[in-house]
Write a structure and sequence with these properties.
210 residues, mainly alpha, binds heme C
């Protein structure tokens, strides 16, 4: 008695063959092998190209990566404005006296926040040089409330944050340029808070304390 008709048989044979193909192809993966894997659809996976840091026999220095032509500037990174980017007057080459970022209530708040994050651990929240780190044996930084530092041009403080000074590390990598200026504006407010003359007061406050 034959329960299966002809079509059923063909169907079983074809399914069996398909299953075998799947198993055989599947078996190519997963096990470590020295041979190149069978790549059914290579797409653009294997094309001749230089990967970063790869070597090259074509170029004289043997490096696949090329150095940009001298003087190349990435888009948006010309940084022509030396006052903003370096704190330096492009004509005189001297440090600029005033921060190019005009203080507003909003950016002063940010200056305070950034100062408390990046400077206060060493310099203290009021800038008097009594940050928490000195309890751990770190060198005591100078107070900002001295005539010497009051008279520093803003550009010089920018340079100190950017490049560090003697025992103070540089903060160029942690603090973006605009934030550095906001920190300086806030530092000036701190200095004023400890050293304001009557004439510095706004008129309405002068009235009150008369
Ligand atoms: C890791 C501790 C540390 C941090 C953080 C730090 N400073 Fe300093 N800073 C010092 C020390 C120490 C000195 C004194 C360096 C010396 O004379 O060797 C100093 C000196 C200074 C001076 C005076 C330099 C001079 O000419 O005498 C200024 C201004 C200053 N820091 C500003 C800042 C500002 C602004 C920040 C935050 C962006 C900051 N520092 C963050 C440790 C620190």
């Amino acid at each position: 008695m034959n329960l299966l008709c002809r079509q059923d048989k063909t169907f079983i044979i074809i399914s069996g063959l398909l299953l075998l193909i799947v198993l055989v192809l599947g078996g190519c993966q997963g096990r470590p092998s020295e041979k190149t894997p069978i790549h059914v659809n290579p797409n653009m996976d294997s094309q001749p190209k230089y990967l970063p840091q790869s070597s090259s026999e074509f170029f004289l220095n043997g490096a696949g990566m090329r150095v940009p032509v001298e003087g190349t500037v990435a888009r948006g990174q010309l940084n022509e404005d030396t006052e903003f980017w370096q704190g330096i007057d492009s004509v005189t080459g001297e440090f600029i006296a005033k921060s190019p970022v005009i203080p507003t209530m909003e950016n002063m708040e940010r200056g305070r926040e950034r100062f408390n994050i990046y400077c206060s651990i060493c310099h203290g929240q009021t800038g008097d040089g009594t940050g928490i780190i000195i309890k751990k044996g770190y060198m005591v930084p100078p107070s900002f409330h001295t005539d010497q530092i009051r008279e520093y041009p803003d550009g010089k403080i920018f340079d100190i944050i950017t490049n560090g000074i003697r025992n103070m590390p540089r903060y160029a990598d942690q603090v973006p340029v605009e934030d550095r200026w906001m920190i300086i504006n806030y530092l000036r407010a701190l200095q004023l808070s400890q050293n304001a003359a009557y004439t510095d007061l706004p008129d309405d406050v002068k009235e009150k304390i008369k």
